[in-house]
Amino acid sequence: MTSAPAALASKPGSVDLLIDLAKADMAGVDALIVQRMQSPVAVIPALAEHLIAAGGKRLRPLLTVAADRLAGGADDNCLKLAAAVEFIHTATLLHDDVVDGSQLRRGKVAAHLIWGAAQSVLVGDFLFARAFELMVETSSIKALDILARASRVIAEGEVLQLTRAHDLKLSQDVYLEIIAAKTAELFAAAAEAGAVAAGAGDDARIALRDFGLNLGLAFQLADDALDYGGETAALGKNAGDDFREGKATLPLLLAIARTGEAEAAFWEKTIGRLEQTDEDFLRARDLIANSGAISATLELAAVYAGAAKQALRVFPANDWRAALEALADFSVSRRS
User: Fold this and answer.
1) d(CA 289, CA 292)
2) In which residue ranges of the chain is pLDDT below 50?
3) Residue 12: per-residue pLDDT
4) Enclosing H/E stretch for 165
5) Angle at Cα 306 formed by Cα 300 and Cα 5, nearest 5°?
6) How far apart, in whole angstroms, are the C-alpha atoms of residue 132 and residue 155?
7) What's the CATH architecture for 4-333?
8) What separation, in Å, do the N-terminal and C-terminal C-alpha atoms of the chain show?
9) Other beta carbons within 10 Å of 269
10) In angstroms, rounded to a whole number, what is the distance separating the alpha carbons of residues 270 and 293?
11) Per-residue pLDDT, 14
């Protein structure tokens, strides 16, 4: 299976330091992931490995490890929590792909198209259960509380997004509420759990949670921009999936506001009623790019990345802090 450092190594050099620092720890996390996704029910490891072995960025468990080390952790307490974070993330991906009808995930055919929706959902449930087993094994009620709360908030965010799909009048505040819940919360919990594993005090724990939350917001904003400005081969999913699913993301909302009445009928047809052709996505992508919506979205992502770096100022300057600051920059500058 592809290790976390190898998966990230092909990305821009701004994350190289973090890859090198976390290499040994992430090898331990990967070993736990492989061990704990096994089951006598053959379809479970087969389906789980289809997604997990595809690689991905492994940013969330990497964040748990890095937060632990920055907060002074020196043992293996964080490894089970990092593996639990990856299982939670993978479970949500399996569920989301069923809900969204996604065709690709991490450059591979989505699991539900191979094994069916029911088995994908149930394997997602299995991974959630494995995550909670790992949390219990750490004997940390605080870490269990953090990650259990995150699981609940993520579900709430996904339901809120589903209820506001095709909403052409969605406010930026509600959009940010959605991505804070469905994406940024797990980044925040991953970092906070790392601090708890290290036995850090409240100031360090809160600072790392703030770092993770702002990093997650920056990451999701950049992801939403990439859906209109990236290429399928680089993204590992189909470019334009958000458009085809009628998701009201910030680039779309800004373009709707900026193109005004001239394109109101187009947006109502393609997003409001989901009446689309392939040419409609190309037109939408041009409208979004020409309106400045992609650059505006990335500018906001950079603001959150800056806030993430600012949160780390409570820690002394060292390699781990520098690596996490570079990760914040990478969240905006990445191309996939």
Assistant:
1) 5
2) 1-13, 233-234
3) 41
4) none
5) 100
6) 16
7) Orthogonal Bundle (1.10)
8) 20
9) 13
10) 18
11) 66
Residue 316 CB neighbours (<10 A): 8
* Residue 267, helix vs strand vs coil: helix
C-alpha R_g of the chain:
19
- Read off the amino acid at residue 116: G
Is residue 44 helix, strand or coil? helix
- The type of residue at 49 is E
Q: Give dist(CA 59, CA 185) in Å, integer.
A: 13
Distance CA 157, CA 140 (A): 26
88, containing H or E segment: helix 77-100
**Dist. CA 302–CA 214, nearest whole Å:** 10
Q: Which of 84, 57, 76 is nearest to 216 (CA)?
A: 57
Please check whether residue 112 is in contact with residue 96, taking contact to mean a CB–CB distance below 8 angstroms.
no
CA distances from 34 to 104, 148, 219 (A): 22, 22, 26
Domain ranges of the chain: 4-333
At 323 the pLDDT is 95
Structure tokens belonging to residue 256: 């709707």
**Count of residues in the chain:** 336
* Confidence (pLDDT) at 233: 43
H-helix or E-strand spanning residue 180: none
pLDDT of residue 2: 31
Q: CB-based burial of residue 233 (10 Å sphere; 0-12 exposed, 13-18 middle, 19+ buried)?
A: exposed
